[in-house]
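Follow-up to my post from last week.
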Amino acid sequence: MTQEPTKFSRIFAYARFSSEGQADGNSLERQRQDIEAAVRQRFQKDEVAGFDITWLEDHGLSAYHGEHVTHGWLGDFMDKVRTGKLPKNCLFVCETVSRASRQGGFVLLSMVHTLLEADFSILMLQNGTLFNRGSVPKFLSVELALYAELAREESAQKQRYSLDNWERKRRHARERPGQSAFTGECPNWLEVVGGKYRVISEKVDSIRDIYLKTLDGYGIDKLVRYANQARLPVPGKGDTWHTSLIKRVLNNRALIGEFQPHRNAGRGKRLPEGEPIAGFYPVAIAPDLFFAVQSLQAKATTFPSRRDDNNHNYLMGIAKCECGGSWRWMNKDSGKQRGYSQYGCSNRQRAVSACPNVNGRLFDHTFVTWALDRIPELLSSGDDPRRGRILSLEAQFSDVSKRKAKVRRAVEVSDSLAEEFLPRLRELVAEEKALQTELDDLKSNAAPAAGFSFEEAAGVFLPAYLDVFETGTPQFDDAYRARSLFRSRIVQSVARVDVSMDRTKVTVKLRNDKVDSFEIEDSKTVTFGVPELTPDEWAQLDADRSEQLRHGRRMSNANLGEL
Ligand SMILES: [Zn+2]
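User reply:
Got it. Predicted complex:
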């Protein structure tokens, strides 16, 4: 082909979720790897936006990849293409034409036409063809239309089966809410008494405890240790807690009363089917608490690559290097010598950039000093009970949007489904609008105030940061807790931190959209290490620290009440 552009401004790749999941070797992960490999093989890095691929995926189940994933892509993406919202010279990569082709040849050809008109180039891995408006291969349109018509036949069969099955289950569930016989399985925190669900209060108490600790900044591993040490009653099989149980507990919508019908996809796989049914189970966790935790998790999963179990990197998931890499904390010394920790960026660690590291103490000192000075000022001071409400609304909004996207896809797929789902779609649109209105209202009337004293949190953090405690001592736990507290306060007030590539300038965006920046000056004289003290002075410092830490704990509990 002669008119291939040499550089693409963005790459969009489309991967299809197979209903058989991993089992048929057609997982999203496998497709992603193939597509990435093909792109890397075919192009130089500077030709294709540095291999930075935006994924368009074809199933709502694949949420939270921590990457830029666009759901409900067909509608949203094509809208953007049509209205010229995307840059010129993009590349669209897909493996097969099967998704679009469910709607038949005309629809597929019209999509291809729209992409070409918008100056897209298209790479089809199925037959290895790369083309743009000026270089469409002969008979390609016929070939594509043929694929599409064949695939439409095949998927029409599947849909008929799926719709019947779902209808039957849904009718069953709606006719018999609150009954135990329906699913043959019952959440572990519930029991069946006289044909009705009843909450087992000790199990629900421990679940609630886990939720509160999550808001307080506990990570999964820490939660597991905590739950086992405190011997919390286990809402599951066995009598100890483990990682996957915690994860299930933190995501289970049955806790807010919802029942999600599933269908059997073969080989032991179960897939959700249709809309969840609200009010099916008794509500065990207040929805506001549930959604506040979902919101924190959604934020955390943008950066799942590396655990920082001791909360040393209080900016994990918030800070980015100018080159796009994420901000990493690295401990260079494993021994007694302190002050050798460093921050750097993930791209440098992966050896794809040469961004310099920066001394950990220097950075922390500068950041904490700035934070103490500026954050309280930037946030409106005083308590604001609306904060929890905003978190909750944000999570509900994102939830409704995802469901809306799912339903909209169903509507786009076929006329019979459209008839079925359009009323639901209208409901979801209205729900989304109402949530947006309330959010706008809350946000515009006042800055999302902190609801905590930032100075206090930092005051607790600083001594703990010295980290002179031995692992396994009660003091060590306090230090952990203090760091966790500091981090949770940072996460609540700071939306994003950008560090310049030369490590001299840091720009901070707060959750109320205010922006501030400061400079890092490498003065070698950072007075932020372990001071040299006499044993008496150490004792006094320990006493002060314990007092501060106790204070920190009270403060933390008080704040939890608001959420
Ligand atoms: Zn970098």
